[in-house]
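agent> fetching stored inputs for the manganese (II) ion docking request
agent> found them:
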Amino acid sequence: MNTYKNVRKISHETRHNMVGDGFRVYQYIPGSLNLTDDASPFLMLDYNAPFRFPPSANRKGVGEHPHKGFETVTIAFDGYIEHRDSSGGGGVIGPGDVQWMTAGNGILHDEFQTDEMSRNGGLQHMIQLWVNLPAKDKSTPAAYQNLTDAMISRYKLDELGSVVRVIAGSFAGVKGPAKTFTPVNMYDMILNAGASTGFDIPLSHNSMLLVTKGKIRINEKTDASFRDFVLFDHNAENIHIEATEDARVFFISGEPIHEPVARYGPFVMNTREELIQAFEDFHSGKFGSIAAS
Ligand code: MN
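agent> prediction call returned; pasting tokens
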């Protein structure tokens, strides 16, 4: 019998909230997780479970707002989001694409459904994840990685389409394209009923998954289904996942950043003094501006 990373807890959010008017999300991080221990380096996970937005005369989304001290990662499964930021980054992400934005020393951006999607309505299925930066990198210049579906690495599990899309870190030796500041693994696992895989994650990593479709069995004994979020322990390296029906799993792990977290709204620093400074920098215009399109 294999020794697996124990499942420490499974949570299932039942209440959604709106982010702006364009993201209908269930929030799993922080949820009941401790940001400095259980979840680090992840600060927030908002899950826009599949939702069909009705047609709308105005563009839905979130208008101009700042971030500082971490990275925002948007993973699109369905729907189209247009992004513009003060580092000059921008573009549209659609099904299979990932946008990895480093707020670093300060950025302004907006995030809206495309005109076409707002006008016609459409299915949206996305995750937005916030990844912390260590103190030494919080002042790194703002940057933007547009990781298109074609750039994302694939580890094929069978001939029927079961595949692990490796966005960051590595899976069984296949490396993902995202540049990260601390060690992070991020997989989008598409599993046909009956497909299974086992993989190793370092003991030191915090590791967790969200079921984004169907039903799975973890470590040959624990069942989880759509919208369940699973946090693993540190007792072993191996995790085994089997799809008990057609399923999709968003898996993340990372080396925890052992530093204090001071968060207020869109700023995440190490101390209260740094938060106050971040607000002053934002209000004095040091985050630049978004170029007119
Ligand atoms: Mn944002």
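agent> quick read of the result: DSSP finds two helices and 26 strands in the chain.
agent> awaiting further instructions
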